[in-house]
Amino acid sequence: MTSGPILRIEGLSKTFRTNNGGALEALAEASFDVSENDFVCIVGPSGCGKSTLLRMIAGLESISSGRIGYRENPVLRPQKEIGMVFQEYSLLPWRTVLDNVALGPEFGGAPRAEREAKAMEYLRLVGMANFSGAFPHELSGGMRQRVAIVRALANDPDVLLMDEPFGALDAHTRILLQKELLRVWENYRKTILFVTHGVDEAIYLADRILVMSARPGRILEIFDVDTERPRDRAHPAYGQLAERILSILEREAAFSATGTNG
Ligand SMILES: Nc1ncnc2c1ncn2[C@@H]1O[C@H](COP(=O)(O)OP(=O)(O)OP(=O)(O)O)[C@@H](O)[C@H]1O
After folding, report:
1. ipTM over 0.90
2. Ligand 1 pocket, Cβ-based, cut-off 6 angstroms
3. Which string of DSSP letters, residue by residue, matches 157-215?
4. DSSP secondary structure letter of residue 231
């Protein structure tokens, strides 16, 4: 254990090579720290490099320049301590719900009884124990995403990276899963980095909200959300913060559409 931040992102940049031999700058000099147990949301205009940033922290994408530190060690490849949940339900279709959740512990060499008990514990947590023998195609979108979340948790990561995990869900299911995720986060005290297009979602969930610029993405502003949970969406402070963030995003979206600042 260290007393410093669990994640330190320093001057992180990413330039992709394009098919025609050109270069596309996706992320520029992003710097921020994440403290242990923090729930951090990242919002920004479409295409500003949010997924790229998360994929780099997950070790799935190479770094062009800068540094990612996890407990002061550089992140250069995927590691067990940093898990990821994607928007598209990335469950293995040929495995049951139970076997999907038990996958990580299975790779880790846990005996069958142990990994199945662990998987059942997590499935109970999100009300999915009765579906342990079902296959992914038999589940609704919300159920699949619950399974994807607890599958990531079953690896016992310190940090959970979530890339628009509720983006494909209807509004009602999304609100339900936001509540469940907060419960899971409070129970297991994970550090969460959560990308979303929903400013409302970010204010409901986060301790801190990072607002990114239009591509190439930089961290423009960081907002602390220190009101008590569960948060009341009808509270005036909620709406005021949403307006402030939305006005930045509107400006940035206009900038990315016209390439000018006015
Ligand atoms: N493998 C790749 N090769 C080339 N360009 C890429 C690659 N991956 C992403 N990009 C480009 O990098 C930029 C940032 O993409 P990214 O998916 O990180 O944005 P985003 O903020 O997550 O977008 P959205 O909010 O729309 O999901 C985009 O212009 C995208 O086209």
Report:
1. yes
2. 16, 18, 24, 26, 44, 46-52, 215
3. -SEEEEESTTTTS-HHHHHHHHHHHHHHHHHH--EEEEE-S-HHHHHHH-SEEEEEPSS
4. P
Q: Is the pTM of this model over 0.95?
A: no
Residue pair 185/192 in contact (Cβ under 8 Å)? The answer is yes
The ligand 1 atom at the shortest distance from the C-alpha of residue 164 is: 27
Chunked into runs of 10 residues, the chain (262 residues) has average pLDDT values of: 82 94 94 96 95 96 96 93 86 96 90 94 91 96 91 92 91 90 90 96 97 94 94 94 96 76 44
Pocket test for ligand 1, best of 13, 16, 60, 218 (most atoms within 8 A of CB): 16
* Amino acid residing at 203: I
Q: How far apart are CA 152 and CA 188, in angstroms?
A: 13
Cα–ligand 1 centroid distance for 215 (angstroms): 9
- Compute the distance between CA of residue 162 and CA of residue 55 in angstroms, rounded to an integer: 10
Of the candidates 153, 192, 151, 236, the one whose C-alpha atom is nearest the C-alpha of residue 38 is 192
